[in-house]
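Bench log, entry 3. Co-assembly request; chain sequences pasted below exactly as received.
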Amino acid sequence: MLNDRFEFLVDECSSGDHARVAITIEGGDAAEHFLRLRSSTALRLDELELSPETATTTIE
Amino acid sequence: MGPRWFFFALLGFGLSVKGADTPMFDTLTLLRFNTVCAHCHEGECSGRLSFSSGPEAAFSHVRRYAGVVDDSLARQLYGVLERMKRDCTYAPMVVPDLDRPLGREILDDYRDTASGNYFVPLGRLEPTGYRLNLRFDVPATFR
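Structure output for the full assembly:
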């Protein structure tokens, strides 16, 4: 089975620089995951933090 | 040859990985495949789809979609696709330590400089909720 993934398309905008996403992995056993970010511009990622939290999927 | 040679050999491998029965792929190859090629090739999980004509026959296709690619990189990209078809997984990569926030100096290792896209292995995650914080160098939105 292919690994599970979180995938986002990133675009430059006029305001805001901190993206926060709540993601939920449901059921089953622990599995390999990865994050893929695609961008149409030359955005650079300065910081990434992943921490456990009980939440539903939302994008702020 | 001795311990010193072995040390430099390991150093030269960098973030490269090698499975028990898989060819070695360097990080550049994996990042290009995982961020560009996988856009279409992800999930091709049948060995029956393997090419019989050899990697050279696919070079023009690779160069059309994967950007500036020399023969060596094209051959490796072909190898990564063959692996995905056979093993039905992404090739393993070194997982960063996610116990603390990752800074740019680490994240740059997971950025394909040609496409500007990122592929960050998160390791084995238990089923639960997570909060993912991403900070970019310029204002950004994502979807």
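The first helix of chain B runs from residue 3 to 13. The two ends of chain B are 52 Å apart (CA to CA).
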